[in-house]
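Quick one: structure tokens for this chain, please?
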Amino acid sequence: MHSEIKLLADKNIYLLEHSLPPAVSLTTFNPENGLPYDTCHFDALFVRTVTQINKSTLPDPGKLKLIASSSAGIDHIDTDYLDSHNIAFAHAPGNNARSVAEYVSTALFLWASKRNKSLKEMSIGIIGAGHVGRSLITLLKNLNLNFYCYDPPRANLDKTFKSCSKEKVLSADILTFHVPLTRNWKYATEKWLNRDILKNNSFELVINTSRGGVVDENAVIDFKKRGRVNDFVFDVWENEPGFSRESAANAFIATPHIAGYSHQSKWRATCMITKNLCKLFSLPVPDFTFPYRAADAPQPQLHFTGSENLSEVLKSVHPICDYDCKLRQIIDSDLPHKRREFSKLRTEVPFRHEFSEISLPEAILKKYPALLKLGFRSDSE
């Protein structure tokens, strides 16, 4: 018989109540109001990226033994502070890798269609070969697209991986970023794409789905005006939940930090941090079968006439353009309202299904073989 474990969690962590063993007593909080005053009385705390954890936000950790974030990134967590209080930390690296790679692939196809470009004739520079970068590499290989991957830190740790040179990746037509936001070291990523690089290199398209601050937004805007950056797609922003009106207005696609949002990625993240909870407190790991009924995650209702082009098919199965539209509706708002609405969008936008969960008509798949390479299934299966 396990003693009761008291867990405090962000109310928006996906289907958390369906992942916990019986010995865990769950209390939820609204992150818009900050951490509750009695956080120190809980055994464990689950948060999302919208909640900063440091000495200022959590001056008295009390009896907390575990803090976990249902995110891949950890730049909102002061891990040194947790270490100083002997608090274990867990997160969900790689949970959203496939979802982000699908977002980037969708953006590439939509951009190529709109700008009348051939992706086959272009090169794609991937900055970062972690979970997301590797997932994107898999998709680009499936699509037979030309890419270069730059990740010296990984090359130092993994002798089976060879990073291209910085000069090589900067020769690409398209750049896409998949790195954490880091400072004060040899391979710092803060403002990686900056004015010095843009003075000497030009790009057809820049995509940032990693962290705001990896790309210098003001520099990109400036060099777009000079014709050295033709287009950019931003899902992350330098001052989230605030964001630059000028950046959003000038983006080819602008979305509210939701590239990794899917039913499957969110469920994977919830399961990953729950496993850490169970391990630390010696609890039995529950069955993590995806609770479809509880998720209220129906398949998208798709209707095709056969006259759709590839871009139109992708728009029907991926809500990237809907996300873009929603963000643009708030770009003229005043700053406090804009920040609140950005956070609200992140919380309330409907999740999508990953491509492997979506069935498409056989005729559509035959017409556009790229869809099979992206992972869609046939409805005849």
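The chain has three domains: 5-94+262-293, 97-254, 296-378.
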